[in-house]
Amino acid sequence: MEIAPNFLTDIIDQDIAEGFSAQIHTRFPPEPNGYLHIGSAKAIFINYFIAKRYNGLFNLRYDDTNPVKEDTEYVESIEEDLRWLGAIPDGIYYGSDYFEQCYQYAEKLIMDGKAYVCDLSADQMREYRGTLTQPGRESPYRNRTPEENLDLFRRMRAGEFPDGSRTLRAKIDMASPNLNMRDPAIYRIVRAHHHRQGDQWCIYPLYDYAHPIQDAIEGITHSLCSLEFENHRPLYEWVVDNIGFDPKPKQREFARLNITHTVMSKRYLRELVETGRVDGWDDPRMPTLCGLRRRGYSPTAIFNFVQRAGIAKTNSLVDQRLLEYCVREELNASAPRRMAVTDPLKVVLTNYPADKVEYFEVANNPVDPDAGTRQVAFSGTLYIERGDFAQVPPPKFQRLKPGGEVRLMGAYLIRCDQVVTDEAGNVTELRCSADLETGNGMPADGRKVRGTIHWVSAAHAVDARVMLYDNLFTLEDVNAVPEGTNYLDYLNPHSLQELKDCKLEASLAGAQPGERFQFVRMGYFCKDTRHGNTFNRIVTLKDSFKL
Question: Is Aminoacyl-tRNA synthetase among this UniProt entry's keywords (predicted)?
Fold first, then answer.
């Protein structure tokens, strides 16, 4: 796959036309405080494929500068997701490995009179910062001498002061119209065990300070990030300029990916997991990459979706049906067909020998002749979908009904001769006769039979559980909930339907975890990777969505 030309490639093309000659170098810098989601896939897609477009390099760099929320579990899951997507990084780095360099650069800023130690509390800093319409006020500690600031900063590192009691702030402009430039904090005191550095540090650099340093050290040429960082770009450039990096990385922003009927916030996703509202980070209803993988989505479908959703600089809400369209398009061409009955109704063929078994040759994929065929067992006792029979059929019903005929897919015509019910009137069995002369052909007498239904042989059926998934939220834009409500108020109570007594054709007994199929007339399904004998519905067969 290649990335289509877009405004970011236009920027790089212009840079090259103006004489930029360095090898293009991009990075994906996730914080390891949760699992990646499909919004992350957009950032991966952009940075990875832009690097490849220009024969450049692509880094994975963990932004692990906040020890309170980060964990090795997330570090491992992020690399696993990238490798599953096929976005293999040219190098894997950790922001925490640059802590000493970040510290030394901070001392340089102090001695240059461009950073100072501030004793204001977090609440006081917010009060001093001002508003969008009012300038901020200078901290009473802003004019400490470089020597005093250096002494205090070194004592911060040595652990002399309590958590949160002091920060190191960049000395920029308290009257700047950009609030991010009003003397932002660049170091804070936090005593927390770091997943990689242990207890070596009790002061940690903030993202806006550490990130441009990390980019510059690694030789990143184009730091491509989502639009919420646009207002942070002046601070990014201030750090690069005042430390004196050359060459200088260039930050450019793109619109993040928002999808209908789901959330992308790691905080919200973590809450769903920790409160048990979903079955873990890899619940197939989640927008996480591990959830999409478990549900049966492929890297190709995800990247096709990102490409079709577009790379622009204006935020928008993308219909999740576009994602379903992309996976459906792929699976229609590639998925083997199998028969599965999810709500079984027994059919006994009264004129078929009780001990007879025959095998019909059935195409694995009608749209792919190279997919070959398989043999499907047929016997005198079958299962059909309960919904394919109606005791009192509605108008134009073309499936099985008392006295009516249907085609068993790939096999005989059958006629319903008797309906067996229990004491409550529920249909428990159909007794039918088969036209054994028909096979795959039409009746010799020329009668027309319009309906075709699928089936499985009862003697050969595989018992399984089938999980049907729907949108996790009923609200289209979960990021804009009505005032006075919470996103949890819109959880879809019908987002999961579990079908326990399903009957599948015998070939599915050997299905491997993650293997994908079309259950004919039912949808596309994937063998679950966590639970045996379980198949997850990836997507339905059809939808009204059009490109």
Answer: yes
Phi, psi torsion values for 45, nearest 5 degrees = -55, -50
> Could you give the CA distance from residue 36 to residue 288 in angstroms, rounded to a whole number?
6
CB within 8 Å of 217: residues ≥ 6 apart: 98, 101
- H helices within 23-121, ranges in order? 38-53, 72-85, 99-111
d(C-alpha 196, C-alpha 76), whole Å: 13
What are φ and ψ of residue 417, in 5° steps? -100, -30
Residues linked to residue 389 through DSSP beta bridges, in sequence order:
400
368: Cβ–Cβ under 8 A, 6 or more apart, which residues?
A: 333, 334
394 prior amide bond cis, ω within 30: no
Q: Which stretches does DSSP call E strand in 303-404?
A: 317-318, 337-338, 340-341, 344-349, 357-363, 373-379, 381-385
Phi, psi dihedral angles at 499 (to 5 degrees) = -110, 115
In angstroms, rounded to a whole number, what is the distance separating the alpha carbons of residues 297 and 536?
Answer: 11
> Which residues, at least 6 apart from 154, have a Cβ–Cβ distance to it below 8 Å?
none
**Is the pLDDT score of 547 beyond 90?**
no
At 127 the three-state DSSP class reads helix
Which band of pLDDT confidence, cut at 50, 70 and 90, is reported for residue 447? Answer: confident
Q: In this model, does residue 440 exceed pLDDT 70?
A: no
Which pLDDT tens digit goes with each residue over 149-196? 999 999 999 999 999 999 999 999 999 999 999 999 999 999 999 999
- Residues belonging to the active site: 31, 256, 266
What pLDDT score does 542 carry? 86
Residue 408's H or E segment, with its range, is strand 405-408
Rounded average pLDDT over 122-130: 96
- Cβ–Cβ < 8 Å for 278, 495: no
Lookup: tokens for 487 = 């996103």
